[in-house]
Amino acid sequence: MESRKGFARQLAKLSLSHADRAIALLWYYTQTQEFDERTAAELANDLFDEGFPKANVTRLRTHLTKNRFTVRGRRSGSFQLDLRRLSELDHKYGALLKIKKVDVTDQIIPKEWVDGTRVYLEKMVHQINGTYDYGFYDACATLCRRLMESLIIEVYISSGRVHDIQSSGVFFNLEKLISTIRIDKNITVGRNTPKTMIEIKQLGDTASHDRVYITHQQDIDDVKARFRRMIRQLLDAAGINK
Asked: What does each C-alpha distance from 242 to 14, 63, 70, 121, 230 come to in angstroms?
């Protein structure tokens, strides 16, 4: 993937307004996951750092506010990309990043479950399905574990209870996250879901840390139906819907 400097050099070859460049840079940040929101002043400074003329921040803010590609961010005065428009920007700027796109199936998780929700979830599901399709089963198991962990955290974030899964501002490890959600009477998951969580943790731990064992397709196949049901429950509990 191109660095920010390399991406900026590619943008410089295009006939774009300050606002267009700011949108493009915001899109770049969603791809690198460096930022998911940025203020007009921050975008203006970022572009200036890469050699573009300094934009008028007030004017840029006005353009971004009215732009169909942006929505308000969580921070005051910040902007995020409208996920409904993301594919349009992917088509417009994707080639500039020199990323090789591969088609994958929905063997593990249907991509429609996360399309238009969180960029990191879209990418993670794409990778989980891709690693299964191409036989990279250690990577698949590790990513399944990561997705489960991320969604447990999302459940608590969405309910405003993030402190219930933190110690001194640091998130619990996965074992403690599972034990916490397992006994949480305010969160509804299937009766067998905690058992599935433990299975996925063990599968991912083995794939990540066992010195000699190589994960096989059958290892994934043995749990993928239960994993899929668990992920659907966690997405619903976190209020993450298309």
From this structure: 33, 27, 18, 12, 17
pTM: predicted TM-score of the whole model, two decimal places: 0.76
Task: Please state the domain extents for the chain.
Answer: 4-97, 111-237
Region 111-237: CATH code: 1.20.120
- Sequential pLDDT tens for the chain (242 residues): 679 999 999 999 999 999 999 999 999 998 888 898 999 999 999 999 999 999 999 999 999 999 999 999 989 999 999 988 888 998 899 889 877 778 899 999 999 999 988 889 999 999 999 999 999 999 999 999 999 999 999 999 999 999 999 999 999 999 999 999 999 999 989 999 999 999 999 999 999 999 999 999 999 999 999 999 999 999 999 999 86
| Alpha carbon distance 206, 111 (integer Å) | 26
Hey, what CATH class is 4-97 in? mainly alpha
